[in-house]
Amino acid sequence: xxxxxxxxxxxxxxxxxxxxxxxxxxxxxxxxxxxxxxxxxxxxxxxxxxxxxxxxxxxxxxxxxxxxxxxxxxxxxxxxxxxxxxxxxxxxxxxxxxxxxxxxxxxxxxxxxxxxxxxxxxxxxxxxxxxxxxxxxxxxxxxxxxxxxxxxxxxxxxxxxxxxxxxxxxxxxxxxxxxxxxxxxxxxxxxxxxxxxxxxxxxxxxxxxxxxxxxxxxxxxxxxxxxxxxxxxxxxxxxxxxxxxxxxxxxxxxxxxxxxxxxxxxxxxxxxxxxxxxxxxxxxxxxxxxxxxxxxxxxxxxxxxxxxxxxxxxxxxxxxxxxxxxxxxxxxxxxxxxxxxxxxxxxxxxxxxxxxxxxxxxxxxxxxxxxxxxxxxxxxxxxxxxxxxxxxxxxxxxxxxxxxxxxxxxxxxxxxxxxxxxxxxxxxxxxx
Length: 432
Hints:
Elements: H1 11-36, H2 45-52, H3 54-67, H4 70-74, H5 76-93, H6 100-123, H7 127-155, H8 169-189, H9 193-214, H10 220-240, H11 244-266, H12 271-291, H13 296-301, H14 305-317, E1 329-331, E2 336-338, H15 344-377, H16 380-386, H17 388-399, H18 410-420
Antiparallel strand pairs: 1-2
Helix pairs in contact: 1-3, 1-6, 1-7, 5-6, 5-15, 6-18, 7-8, 7-9, 8-9, 8-10, 8-17, 9-10, 9-11, 10-16, 10-17, 14-15, 15-18, 17-18
């Protein structure tokens, strides 16, 4: 009889499969929406559950089998805060429970944000697997890029290359800028010239797609956040990398980035794009003029301001408990209502009051604290492997200040889980 080799069921093999499913689960809502762009998907709990959560549940079972619940024991404090936040959101949602959108949002928050945090935490990523995980991300990034190229070449999307079925330009800008950060991590850790060239091409394509998406007014903040994280990563690279060659190659990437954005801005010949990029520079002045000087023209110039104003108004109505999770927001300039204020901090304040906002803020502080502790425990070269996770976490925290509802920013929760569960003790000698 045919015998299955034992190594197929080794812990390393099982963990590798779980890591592939981990990345897939993070991307699965986007994958499902893309499928829905071609096939009309009627509501079907079993099918949706299998596509979205099935691989993630398999990964959960593998991680628990291999790692046990050590990460749960080590993170009781932050788990307690997460449980408190769930309870606050649930109690708050009762006020708006009649609305279907409220029930759906709360269920998605549990199924994706909370589940993502738990899955990331029990994965107990270490330095060795962090490098392998970078390679897994590259596989999915290439698939997404090939799909975008297909849309461009076969469907004539041109500037609509920045959109994927079921997604806005803001989401795609954030996604592909994040892809750029993933590729950048692989580029800086690679030692082979051919591999670096390949990563450079993929980086260029990812940032190009993201830049076209960021040319739209709704997604220009993705560009700003990307540059903040990009420069932060550059500073880490210059500080911790002892290799002069790596530092020079990284500077080459920075120069190439500047040239790329210059070509998009100056060489496109599209005045609308130039205006959108130029408006980024004016945004801080408009913010000050609006909220400090009560400048009406500045108030009308930024689409988010009316929503933020309404969120602040709602917070003042009930500053302790909030007006209820799932409330609507009025955009007085456009005379329409929105499901969220495009700022999860203001959404927590308005809908859950100081109780929910304080719990969420404490959650962020504890994750950052754990990042600092892990960072200090590692050697310089190892820090370049680890730093991708806290920078990705900060990327989505900053981006959520102008986009996303509470239940939509699940990338933030996945990376929070991977940070607090990160195993800094394993495989250190191999990377020193």
